[in-house]
Prior knowledge:
Blueprint: E1 8-12, H1 17-28, E2 32-37, H2 40-51, E3 57-61, H3 69-79, E4 86-89, H4 104-132, E5 136-140, H5 153-172, E6 179-184, H6 192-195, H7 213-225, E7 230-232, H8 235-246, H9 249-260
Parallel strand pairs: 1-2, 1-4, 2-3, 4-5, 5-6, 6-7
Helix pairs in contact: 1-7, 3-4, 4-5
The chain binds NADP nicotinamide-adenine-dinucleotide phosphate.
Amino acid sequence: MEQHQNQYALVTGATSGIGYELAKQAAEHGYNLVIVARSQDALQSCAKDFLKYGINVIPLAKDLFNPGAALELYNEVKGKGIEINLLINDAGQGQYGLFIETDINRQLEIIQLNIASLTALTYYFLKDMVARNEGRILQVASIASNLPGPLQAVYHATKAYVLSFTEALINELKDTEVIMTALQPGVTDTDFFDKAGAQNSKLVEDPSKMSDPAQVAKDGFEALMAGKDKVVSGFKNKMMVSMSHVTPDSVNAERIRKMSEEQDHDENS
Length: 269
Ligand SMILES: NC(=O)c1ccc[n+]([C@@H]2O[C@H](COP(=O)([O-])OP(=O)(O)OC[C@H]3O[C@@H](n4cnc5c(N)ncnc54)[C@H](OP(=O)(O)O)[C@@H]3O)[C@@H](O)[C@H]2O)c1
């Protein structure tokens, strides 16, 4: 396993789910960590887990719903004299429900988190990476990036942005040594669906059909280290994305709607 001692990885969303597992991957590869999420308590507890790898861990609490948070984060990291060699933009949220029945302020916060903060963090840290001609960025997109998502319309659209943005930047970076990769998980067993108010969606009806966040993170990290442009995690998800390229978007949207609807509850039970 290639080791990255004396290098730093910054992982947003490192306290739970896929981000936690990605931070673990980075720690296993010898990276020191800057871990970011909102909950100070969760950051402290995760820092303890990651310290077991014999690395430095710096927890930084930030709410990336706030428009100024990305620049604050960059400035705090620079203020500590740390160069980020690996940026993992993982923090993201969704909101379940018919668009017009959701809270528009929450949807706009999700756009801020999933799109604007991710873009700003990429901008600040990528400039430094290009100046050094060294560095890697993993953008956590989704299979939702390829599929219109009724009942999670804004979320899917934000993930389409992440994939398009990443693919364009990969082209802009082609004459540099900086690597950028998009990770596209499918439905994964994390706290995401609780936060999104999607606990009753068919998407989460059968946990055995959901991906394991540790496997998703492994797939993403390996793709990044191998310099791949993007990776869809899991065979079933690869099939779904491949099929989406040949079926009309209206058919794709209807399929996602059926998969996302509320679970059928037996009235007699
Ligand atoms: N689960 C899935 O099925 C799935 C599928 C495809 C893609 N993804 C993507 O994977 C990424 C991680 O999601 P997950 O499934 O691992 O969800 P998760 O278990 O809910 O983890 C989300 C992480 O992001 C942090 N976070 C949330 N809101 C934040 C904010 N405003 N500012 C800073 N940090 C924030 C959370 O910590 P705090 O709450 O303490 O801030 C937590 O560490 C997201 O980008 C998601 O879109 C997930």
